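Hello,

Following up on my earlier ticket. Below are the three sequence lines again, exactly as submitted.
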Amino acid sequence: MEEHLLNEKLKLNRRHFFSKLSTGIGTMALGSLMIPEVFKGNGQSTESDQFTLGIPHFAPKAKRIIYLFQAGAPSQLESFDYKPLLRERMGEDLPESIRNGQRLTGMTANQTKFPLVGSFADFKQYGHNGAWVSDYFPHIGKITDEICIINSMNTEAINHDPAITFMQTGNQISGRPSMGSWFSYGLGSDNQNLPSFVVLTSRGKGNSQGLYSKLWSSGFLDSRHQGVLLRSGKDPVLYLNDPEGMTREDKRTMLDKVAELNTTHYDDVLDDEIQTRIAQYEMAYRMQMSVPEVVDLKKEPESVIKLYGAEALIPGTYAANCLLARRLAENGVRFIQLYHQGWDQHGNLPNEMSQQAKDVDQASAALVLDLKQRGLLDDTLVIWGGEFGRTNYCQGPFRADNYGRDHHPRSYSIWMAGGGVKKGITYGQTDEFGYNIIKDPLHVHNFHATLLHLFGLDHKQLTFKYQGRRFRLTDVAGNVVNDLIA
Amino acid sequence: MAFAFIWLLIWRNNRAGASVDGFKALPKQISFNFHVKPILSDKCFACHGPDAVKREAGLRFDIETSAKGELPESPGKFAILSGNTDESELVKRVFSSDPDLQMPPADSNLKLTEEEKEILKKWIEQGATFEKHWAFVAPKKGEFPEVKKTDWPQNEIDYFILNKIEERGLKPSDVAAAEKLLRRICLDITGLPPSTDDIQKFISSEGSLDREKAIDHYLSLPGYGEKMTRDWLDVARYADSHGYQDDSYRTMWPWRDWVIHAFNENIPYDKFLTYQIAGDLLPDANKATILATGFNRNHPITQEGGVIDEEYRSTYVSDRTNTLGKGILGITLECAKCHDHKYDPFTQEDYYGFYAFFNQVNEKGLQMDAVQAKNQKYYADAPYITISEEDVKGILSFINKPDTGTIKLMVMNDSASRETFVLERGAYDLPTDKVAAVAPKDILEFSAEYPQNRLGLAQWLTDKRNPLTARVYVNRLWANIFGQGIVKTIEDFGSQGSLPTHPELLDWLAVDFVENGWDIKYIMKKILSSATYAQSSRLTHELKEKDPENILLARGPRFRLSAEEVRDYALATSGLLNAEVGGPSVKPYQPPGLWEETNAGGNRGILTNYVQDSGEKLYRRSLYTFWKRTLPPPSMTLFDAPNRDLCEVRRQKTNTPLQSLAMQNDEQILECARVLSTEISSKAHGEEAIPEVFQRILLRKPASDELEVLSGYYDEYLEKFRINPEAAAKILNAGLYPATISDSAESAAMMMVSQVLYNLDETISKE
Amino acid sequence: MKLKLLNNLLEYAIFSATILLVFLVFFEKYLEVPMLFRWIGHWHPLILHFPIVLIFVTIIQYWRNDNNVYWYLGVTTLFALFSSLSGFVLSTENAIKGNQILVHQWAGIGVSALLVIWWHYYKPLVNKSSFLKGVQLVLIALIVFTGHVGGSITHGENFLSFKPGKVEEQVVVESPTIYLSLVQPIFDDKCTQCHNANKSKGKLILSDYLSLAAGGEFGPGLDFSDLGKSSLKYHIELPLEDEFHMPPSDEEQLSEDELMIINSWLEAGASDTLTMSGLKEESRLFTYIQHIKKDDKKRYSHLPGVTDEKLLKLSSNYIAINRMYHGTGAVSVRVYPNATYNPSQLKPLSDISKNIVSLDLSSITIGDQEIALIKSCKNLEKLNLSNTVLEDKELKDIGILENLRTLNLLNTEITDASITTLTGFPKLSEVFIYGSRITSDGVVKLSKSHERIRIFTESTQAKEFRSVLPPATVAPLKHFFNEPFKIDITHPLAGIDVFYTLDGSVPGTQSVKFTGPLQIGNSTLIKFLAMKDGWESSRVDSVLMIRTGTEPDSLSLLYPPDIKYPGRGIFLLTDLQKGPDSFSDSAWMAFREKDFVLHGGWKEAVLLEEIIISSLVKTESYLFPPESITIKAGRDKSSLKTIYSRKFDGLRDHKNSPAGYYSCSFKSQKLGFVEITVRPLSKIPLWHQGVGQKGWFFIDEVIFVNGKSNDPI
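Thanks for your patience. The regenerated structure is below:
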């Protein structure tokens, strides 16, 4: 319905503008200028909502997101949720009263005992509000005054695939548009020469879980809202590079010829799709210029490299991606999605977790500070976290210095910074066993609703009608959590 | 006094005119199904519909008695009083501006347009008659509508179309040019462009096309089966990997071979369905019919260690149920999984009634994890059949099997009978009431003579009286050909779906299809032989104004080719296409590193690294391209192919910058341009060669101005390359196909030309 | 004579108009109003003013015994009829007539009717003054009422009725009194219908603070001894089913926010003077108010409107124009640097300069045109000039921007000279100067002169961030070699010092500094680290380069490697290739159930003194050192004797995983055949989660080191 309605409006609109000038090469530039704009929806509103697409419903606080997704689910108990009791009662069985009926994964289902295990890493208090952060994350500790730590995230899924899909699309079963696509759909892109939703992946040393393109697919939304995978290496966007031997000038002449013939054909058959095609070729041509410029980290001074850590020199690392994310944010990309794999510590946790932390600790903190000193933090929202938490009891044979933790959907920790989120606070609280939430639970749906709110979007109003139903990122649930908003 | 009379006079004259623009465009007779139901469904059912849980004020508009009965919560009041608009609460509420009364309420984010309000009012005025939803009433062949231009129609279809065209005071477009029409026919039947010889074969010297001959010819080619299969793979969510987390390898391709074979053999649609849904339960079941049931095992299967078995098993069963709903019945069954359907008359019980049919399979949520599966070369989860060399020599001769030992293929069996329960909120661990395997009577009574298993389900589906099966399929065929269905939402014939633009035609086609023994080739030919189909797709300003979406079909279809067709088109026109039919999937060019970047580490399953094929395998048709669910071939997804996680029946037709990048820089396209150019410039030169290339790619002669542009371009580059042979060499080194270059400068210049041609909108559009 | 005609005309007019009106009113149902007549309807708002005025005139003139009153009256009547007619027609354009319209319609018709009657019976009534007074009074009353209702229809409810200013305005003030601006409005909205001075249900009045405190039948509304017990709280928190739940279940209920407001107000002491500043920052109410203040749409209400089409027209590939949010005239503008940029492209923007509240010209060369644009944006609140060559003078040229709040001067040429300019912006509250030429003294000066300005320079925490140099890399990297070669040591950063040792000792500043390529002849262990000022030295890295001697002419395995990790074939054992860190790579072969038993044979016996086995240990992945290594050897297959044997005592814990090289040296001797047996670990030790299971043995190379021939043959 909408997608199509929009297309029609798009055409009408384009027709309207084209009619102003004679068709011909001249229209190309104009065309390319219009289409993205129209898709920002100026003027166009879809039948189901009275709001215009591409414009916030109310005053937004944030304009961009950088989502540092820690794929595999980092343990909250070795990062931000400090539970000294678990050390005191190390090895004791988890009281059934606490676990009451929480389902188990197939990996611990047949486990007869659930020995509590405390964090191998020590914790320190940081910042004005004395936030607890484990020694695995000394740099993030230094920025607790800038961030909002949430210890009460909770989800429904207990396995990676559904959980990460839920976190990224608001639904456990794949097929829905990802968050990034929703934002692109609701706010449009700011820089017409870059994709509005970009995905970056990096791999940790720990036990990792796969990623899937469905996580950045646009589902039933128009595929121009699909996440574009930016890759390290010579072809940052698929098919971006022209074949060997073809210069920019060659490409320009070629596009002119293509446009010329297309226009001739348009004059014959009058199908507006042809005009759109011409416009898309122009936009592609501009992307070929802007993308390589943005991804070129060599432009960054050594001081910045030092801030993010030397790994930033190696393309494809988490550090490099964080730095890249900042450059993309500066250049008006709406939604920058990072994934860092390797957080699935079913065993050998202390060892692997410390390595994983080394990968991300400094760069994550550096990103926040860098944004701040550049005046970007106000309207750039940074999110750090995974798809669920990990159990407070040990998986597999138990040792104080080498243990594993299973999946735990009931509570986990993430942190956010900038973008109108309260800073220097710790939100939500789990019981002393770090198993159940006892204060201010934050469910994934509410998390999504709050994010949209920060961007001036009412999660109930941002809908898309598909198969006769109006879909939302928050499905049929979700409340905005004002307490998180500055 | 006089004044009064004058006024009165003016009145009389004006009344007629006045009534027209009074309430403009309100139909004389309001039809419940076509005017009222869509409004009620879209704007009211959410709270006053089938879903008992969400129902407000005990009022439901989907059932006449409730809608017209006394309002339970406000005695003495009625939502609808036939003929009485003043007393009907509905009218009061929808017209009210008082936020407390107004319907729909503000917080619902739903609004009625003035026209919708008036329709509801007028409907009640006219007696507020209810009808069963149109799609649940078995289709009947009706009268052929009257048409003025009686010499236009070429078969039954055209009467229905022409009638509507004339109603709007338009007239059909002229017949498309012979080459264009031949190209269109060939693309629609085989998914490939016609060969240059075909043009000689079917277009007479004076330029008239022997349509029937062409249609019959193409229908007889194996390409027909491949094209039809391409469409069916989306419905069947076919893939060569398991999906989820580790997404390792599975062998389902022999099932794909069966589908191609089934279409080419023109197995009637009812059998086609029966085999895939219940081939194992047939009295005369054989290995082929059992193999067909792989259809219901194509869904993703997890190989993530430590998942909860039952959770996933129930997901698989749901997937089959939803696929049946969306792909075959054209209803959004999945909406009734967690609660009664909000718009259509399906309860949660109905959903699990279907669910029960697919719930008897002897399967596990997690058979073994990716690593184990890899090490044990376990590429098919039980239940499966084993396909041996003997089979392939015998009954399974349609399988194009490389001689690499036996193959396991996942199929259905009912060897694990289970009781089925309604699952609260669809959660596997919240069973409530027990339900039996049965289909909802609102569609068609599940009569006692059907066995209570998948076979019975198949019989129910293919029962002549089933109102959906035939309609949905002919509608999909129609959509593939004309770009949009008679019912635009081909996945949803329910209340929320769009209404048929030509209901009588849809019914006629559906009935005709069944009457002719569900003969797919027959109905294809019927459609392709119509005058409607043969129209030129050229727009006029008038058509653009009056019918931008081409709903009336006063012109031929024009839209971008599907992802597979785009690539196949390039392969075919360049002569690279490898026409081999069937067999295991192949791995053509793909930008390096895609799988490696996102996999779950080196040893998780066997699809962690993309190992590109070589030689002929690079040039197979795209439906054979290896499909890894978590990372489908980019050249496909960029052009709107679904990721095959779920059953999909309608692809978007988008137009994005990334597509143009792919057309410009995908090694495959470049290689095609190179091979074509080198071949041509080895035979002809410059001025003769350009029309050659043009003809090969666009299958028509270039217009003078087109030729001018291209030869100018050609000469410019010919010169460049003569001066700078290195550049020519670089340009010419696209792809692995062995080069046979006579004059590199000429070939390179020609390659630039063919690249321009491959990047034209016309090239990748069917028109 | 003339008068007579005029009079008749008037009579006709009034008569037919009356007929018409009657006709319309009675046959409304059956009529469709013709277009032409409809258009007349639109005159209603104009016509209606005549009768209103005229009625008063007429009445006044009547009492002043003006003898033309009859005429006044006639004309008045006629206009009244016309306005009724036109009004009626107008009303038919609504699909359905709301009550207000109906009331207005009948009142209007009433007026006309009265006038017609008066006019018709003018003469007979002349002396019935008392009766006339009545008529006139009713007329006046009626006309006012009609006007009132009419007003409500066009301008909304109670347009003409007086009402005190409402809440929204007050919310905007910096620190509103909670009670007035938030609490009372809730009562006004949802309670006072029943609890007001006239209609005090339950003897409760909620229209003012005192009556609220006083409360009603159920005790004080505010119980200051224990606010939690206040009947206010009690009633709103009763379950909905409870008959005393307020508001009554059939009325509109309090929203979550409203409940929150009331409760937080009670918690905060329920004073009528409590202001926002009296609230705790973390309290929900505080956040809530923060919101309504921020989201307040009125903030930009002073800006001119601008259409989407206009924004669309002014946008281009490199100029992004965004409306701040739905329904506001405020827009943000971002100009992206690009090859085709030239200042004149900014010109059209002056059309909407008043709408621009945020302007981003980062990385654009700032010249006159840019400055001109900035100047013209009177409502500018946020200006980004980062990464430009902006200098003090240009910044000065911009002049005073009254509303500027945020200014970004990151990486500009701005110096301390601009501090006065900066303090010039009255509302400036944030300025970013990192990477500019402003000195720390400048910062101090600036913050002194204007404590409200927050200055962002390099973040202090960022300064603390240290970073370890990445290790240098040895190229070419050959773990095994058979011919001498040269190595280079490279590093991604410039100006790096690399120190190295070759004797296995830990390198440091005292060690040799790497200057040029090194010749590697024999097996070598090189240890090295990289150093640079401001960086922490890289970790010490080492590369072991082993020189291999002979390679067996025949090589065979007694048992094949485990099917899971077969490797790329037996030749990998002598291909001089070191397997990568990931053990699933085909450069590794692995053994678990069966022993690794390698047979190597030489056509010509060779002099050997050492065999090195290159393996991989990753305890977390169950890759362990072997249980034992045994080497049998002899001149030929038949004469084998054990020349080396070693048992490994399993690892103590996971911490120290050995490198994985096992050097097996023996007395230098001539050998024609060797049998190397490696038994994988049979029981994984206690500390490991896989305790008791077998360990994996991974191998990627076997090196045969030639012996020094001391006994000449």
